[in-house]
Write a structure and sequence with these properties.
The chain has 53 residues and is mainly α. The longest helix has 22 residues.
Length: 53
C-alpha cells in the first residue's frame, strides 16, 4: 500500500447478513452498524484532513 502511495485507514466498515438492512432514508436498521459507520466516517474525515494540508 505504501509503495503505491496509499494510506491505510485504521477503521473500515464491512457489513453483511442482517446488517445490510436499511430504512427508507438509507440509514442502517441495526444500531451497532450505524454507530460503526459514524465512527468510520469520523476517522476517514480526520485522516483526509491531515493529508490534504
Amino acid at each position: 500500500m505504501i509503495n503505491l502511495h496509499g494510506i491505510n485507514c485504521p477503521e473500515w466498515v464491512s457489513i453483511g447478513g442482517d446488517q445490510r438492512r436499511f430504512d427508507d432514508s438509507g440509514k442502517p436498521v441495526d444500531p451497532s452498524t450505524a454507530d460503526r459507520a459514524e465512527r468510520v466516517l469520523a476517522t476517514f474525515v480526520r485522516l483526509s484532513s491531515k493529508v490534504s494540508a
